[in-house]
Design brief:
259 residues; 7-stranded parallel beta sheet; 9 helices; 37% helix
Length: 259
């Protein structure tokens, strides 16, 4: 197993459990305890965890795994969700994409759609996510609008008043919202308040809002509210979504697509 793969696995285990023991992690990853200790020391140097005697704990109370280490989590569900979301968008649409692993998959699904292979433009994509802009910028048939702002390392999203300035001047047809939590009562949410503020403005500039979230995000709460559930038109999730949660969203007037 490569170092990057080990780091990704360690961080995912740490997010799930809140605490890691060196010996247990070594057994799970089938590497030596010395290797795990070295990995944890190096991750601690990057402030991605806190070393303890015999292991590690998450860094801070509200821990957020950086985007580059989240790509493998619920990967197949996110890809199915992305295909379904991409299918909701018609050629010529102006679409807003927030940052996140699921919305990144949406961008990739749009990039390979045959009916979007040409046009002037085939799609207008407004995003505050640097990685999404980078992936789509090589598609000349797509008009890419990047909001500007200050880059947030965890999510590659641009935040702050510079992003506000661009979004206040445009309107879009559909906003596709990536979230860390979505609940009927508490709405859609993110870990970071500045990120949530930009995502909220993107939703306000859209005619329709689509939340793209795998089932692990449903019924959850997070620190920073993006918008209420009444602002969401469609939820695209996976078939593992809790039936009661789905019923709650539908009763709130949200169309639920489970794939």
């Amino acid at each position: 197993m490569s170092r990057d793969a080990r780091w990704k696995a360690l961080l995912e285990l740490l997010v799930e459990r809140g605490r890691l023991d060196v010996e247990e992690a070594a057994a799970e990853l089938e590497v030596s305890s010395a290797t795990i200790r070295r990995d944890l020391d190096q991750l601690a140097e990057q402030q991605m965890l806190v070393r303890t005697r015999g292991g590690a704990v998450v860094h801070g109370v509200s821990y957020e795994l950086p985007l580059r280490y989240k790509t493998a989590r619920h990967a197949s569900e996110k890809q199915r969700i992305a295909q379904a979301v991409a299918g909701l968008l018609t050629p010529g649409t102006a679409v807003g994409l927030t940052g996140g692993t699921t919305t990144t998959e949406v961008a990739r699904a749009l990039a390979v759609r045959p009916d979007l292979a040409s046009g002037s433009p085939a799609l207008t994509v407004v995003t505050n996510a640097l990685n999404i802009a980078n992936e789509l910028a090589v598609r000349p048939q797509f008009k890419i609008v990047v909001t500007g702002g200050v880059a947030r390392a965890q999510s590659y999203e641009l935040i702050g008043p510079l992003a506000d300035g661009v979004l206040s001047q445009i309107t879009i047809d559909v906003a596709v919202l990536g979230v860390v939590a979505f609940d009927v009562t508490h709405g859609a949410a993110a870990h970071d308040e500045a990120e949530a503020a930009i995502n909220r403005l993107l939703c306000e500039r859209a005619e329709r809002v689509v939340v793209a979230a795998d089932s692990s995000k449903l019924g959850q709460r997070a620190f920073a509210r993006i918008c209420g559930s009444d602002a969401v038109d469609t939820l695209v999730t996976d078939t593992a979504a809790d039936e009661d949660a789905v019923r709650g969203f539908e009763e709130a007037g949200i169309r639920v697509v489970a794939v």
